[in-house]
Prior knowledge:
The chain is an alpha+beta fold. It is built from 17 helices and 50 strands. Strands 12, 15, 16, 18, 19 and 21 form a six-stranded antiparallel sheet that branches. Strands 23, 43, 44, 45, 46 and 47 form a six-stranded antiparallel sheet that branches.
Amino acid sequence: MASVTREYTLQATMLGYFGPDGKRNPVLQANKGDMVRIQIVNGENMTHDIALEKMGLKSKTLAQKGDTTSIVFKADQSDTYFCSIPGHRAAGMVGKFEIVEGAINTEVVIAGFIPKKNNKALNLGFENGTTNDWTATGDAFTDALISQDPSPVHENDQRINMSGKYFITSGGTKNYKRTGTLSSVPFTVTHPFAAFKVSGGALQDTRVELVRTDNNEVFFQITGSGRATLQPVVVDLSDLQNKEIFIRLVDNETGISQIPYIGDDKFAHINFDDFQFYSTRPNFPNELKQTDIIILPPLDPIVHSGLSGTEAAKSMTTQQGFSVKLAAAEPDVIRPISFTIDARGRLWVVEAHTYPIRAAEGKGKDRILIFEDTNGDGSLDKRIVFTEGLNLISAIEVGMGGVWLGSAPHLLFIPIDKSGDKPAGPPQILLDGWGYEDTHEMLNNFRWGPDGWLYGTHGVFTHSNVGKPGAPDSERTKLNAGVWRFHPTTKKFELFAEGTSNPWGIDFNDYGHPFITVCVIPHMFHVIQGARYHRQAGKHFNPYTYDDIKQSGDHVHWIGDRGPHAGNFRSNSKGGGHAHAGAMIYLGSENWPKEYRNHIFMNNIHGSRVNLDLPNRKGSGYLVSHGEDFLLTNDTWSQWLNFRYDGSGSVFAIDWYDKNQCHSPNPDVHQKTMGRIFKISHETDKWVQVDLTKASDMELVNYQLHPNEWYVRNARVILQERGGNKKVHKALKKILNENPDVTRQLRALWTLHVTKGLTEKDLLPLLSHQNEYMRSWAVQLLSEDNNASDAALTRFAELAKTDNSALVRLYLSSAIQRTAPEKRWPTLEALLQRTEDKDDHNLPLMLWYAFEPTVPTDINRAVELAMKAKVPQVLPFTIQRVAALNNAESVKTLQSLQQRLEKMEHSDQNHEVQALIKKVLEPK
C-alpha cells in the first residue's frame, strides 16, 4: 500500500468526533489521490468505530477508553464519516470528508483588542496571574486560576488549549461539585465583534453570560460542549456600541450522579479564557457555535428518597379520581422481580434474593409468595410461601396446571396441587440453554397470549441457545433480543420476533396485538410475528436482513440528542428517561376514564413515574404517541417492575425499591432488604372476591363477554386447560357468528382455537369476513403450524391481490414466512404489486423477510419479480442477496440484469441500481 500523505486523529465520544482543537465533527479535507488515514481514539468506555458511507469502509470496534483504530483509503470522492454502532450516528457521530483542489491551509485569524476601563487594559484573559477585575459568589471559583495544560484539576489526557499562560475554571475533575458565579467589572463596547474561549458542561446551569449593565439583560449566553478543550466563541456586538456590558460565569451544577456506583459528571463546570474585541468578524477554524451544542436542562426535581412504604404511597401524585395504597412491604415482601394474578385474584410474587449472580446448584434463595386481600381493604393480609430454594428467577406466570418460571438457564414448570397453594412435585425443566451473561437481560415478563402460547421477552446482551434438555444445536433456537413463545401442551418453542434492546414488558390489546416496552433505544414496538426490529447492538441472525423495522412510537422519553443516557434525570418534560419496565395495556374496569382503555402503561425508572402511551392505527400497524404521565412516585428509589389489573379493575404494581437505579453484576450494589406492592384504584373500583377455577364451562364461556379482560383471559386459560367440548364450542361459535362487537368475536375465535374447536373448514370462510381483524387472525391461525394447506395458500394469494386492508396484508407477509419458500411465489407476486404499501411502516421490510428465502430457490424468477415490485427496497436487496450466492449463475444473472438496465430509460433509481450491481460484482 502507498504511504499515507494526509492524516487526521479524532477523539470518538457519544457527543461526536472531536479534532485536537476541540472542533466537533470537523470537515476533513484531502486532495484527490491522497492516501488518507483517519485514526480515532476512544474518549470513553463505550463501543465506537468509524466508517465511510460511500466507500463502505469500517474500522474495527473500540470498547475501552484510550483504544485506537483507523481506516486508510485513497481519496477519490467526497464522503460521510460516521459511527456504525446503532444509534450513535443519530446521536451526532457524523461528519464530512471533502475532496478539494489546491493547498489545504489553516485560516489566519485577525488580531483582537483587549477591553479597557479608564484607559487600563482589563484582566479578561487572566494573564497577570490574578482574578483582579472579577467578583465571585459561592465557592465555584475558589482557587480557579490554572496555569498548566493538562490542568491539575482535569483528567490527565484532557488538553485545555488556553491562550497564554492562564485560564479560569469552576471545577474540572476535582472541584466540579462547587457552585457559584464570577462576574467581571463593567466595560464599554468599543468594537462590533468580540470573541472568547469556553469549554465545560453542555448544561443549562454551566454557562457564560454577557449582560447589559443598564438593565441587567442577558443578551448572549453559551455553555461548553461537554468537553475540556477551550474553543473560541464569536459574538456580534454591533447593536451595543458604546453600551456598558459585563461578563458573568455561572456554575450552578454540582455534577452529582443519581446512580451511586456511576461516577459524577466531570464536565459539570465551566472553563473560560481570553475575551477580546474585534473590528471585523474573526473566523476561527475551530469556532464553537451554539448550534454545535446539545444543552441539557437542570436535574429534575424529585423530592423524596428512602421512604417507608406508607410514606412512599402518600407521597405519590396521581391523576384525579385515583389513589394509591400500600398493599404490602418489607419484611413481608423483599426484592419482588416479577408477579402475576391468578384466577382467584391472588398475587403470585417472585422474591429475587439470588440476583444478580446465579448461585451454585442447590444454593438458590429465591422464593414464590402468594398474597391475597381477604377483606377488601386494599392490604394483602394473607401471605403463603408457595416454594423456596429457587435460583435466579426472573419471570413467573400461572395457569395450565402449574407455575411457569424463568430461571436461566432453564424454563421451569412446577405443578400445583389441588389446594392451589402448594407444589404437587419438584420443578420440571422444560427448556434449557437460556443465557445469563447479563442477568438483567434474561428471559422475563411471561404472559399468556390470546392464542394459548406463553409469551416472554429477552435482552440483547444475553445470548441463548434454547431447546429441550439434551437437544443438539440443530434442534435449538438462538436468540438474544426479542419476543419468544412456548406452547404449554405441544411444548413447541419459537422466536416470535427478533430485535430491540432489553424489553422488560409485553401485553396485548383488544385485538390481540402485542406491544413491548424497551430501554436505551426508542422504547415502543408493536410486535409482528416474523419481524426484525432495530437492535441496540449486535447483528440479526439472518445476514441478509439488510434493514430492520424501527419503533412504532413517534417520540422518546428523554430529552436531547446526546443519546438516551444523557437525558436521564433531566427529561421531566419528555417523560423521564430511557429505562422502561413493565407493559400493561389497560383493559380492566369499564368505569375507568376512557382515555386509559387500550393504552399502554410503563414505569420510567429514571423518571420516577408511570408513562402512558397512546397507540393509534396507521397503515398496517400503529403510531404510538405520548400521553400525559399517569402517576409520579416523586421518589428516586422507586423502581416499579410490572403492573397487572385484577377483577375489580384496580392495578397492582411491584416495586423493587432501591437507591441504585441501574443493573450491576456486583451483589453489594443492590439493596437486599426492601420491596413493596402498591394498589392503584379509581374511585369507581369495587372490590370483588371471585374464584374462576370453580366456574362451570358455560360460565367461563360467558366470561368471554365480560368488559374486564382479567375475567376473559383467566377464563380462556382455564378452558384451554380443560380442553373444551362440543357444548363449549357451540356456545363460542354463537358468539363468533352473532355478536356485533368484533372484539367479542375475536375472544370467541381465540378460545375456540385454544380448546381445539376450530378446523380449516371454520377458518377459511373467515378470510371473507367483513372485518379486517377477523380476516387477519384467520390468516394467522391457518398458518399456526407452519404448514398452511394448498387451499389456504390459494386464498392467501387472492387476498394479496384484492384485500383493501394493510393489516391483512401484514398478516399475509407474516404467515407466508411460515410457509415453504417454493410455495410463497403467488402470494408474494401479488403483495409486491401493492403500490399503496411502499411507504408503510412495516410492510416493505416484512415483505423482504418473506421474499428473501425464495431467492436462492430460483434466482431468475426472483430478479424478475424484484424488477416489477412496487416496494423500492426489494430490488437492491435482491441484488445483494443474489451476489451473496457468489457462484457462476449469480454472476451471470447480475451481468444480464446490468445489460438490461443499460438499455432502459435513465433515472436516478436506474443509476443507483447499476452502481450497486457494479459494486457487488467487483472482485473481493
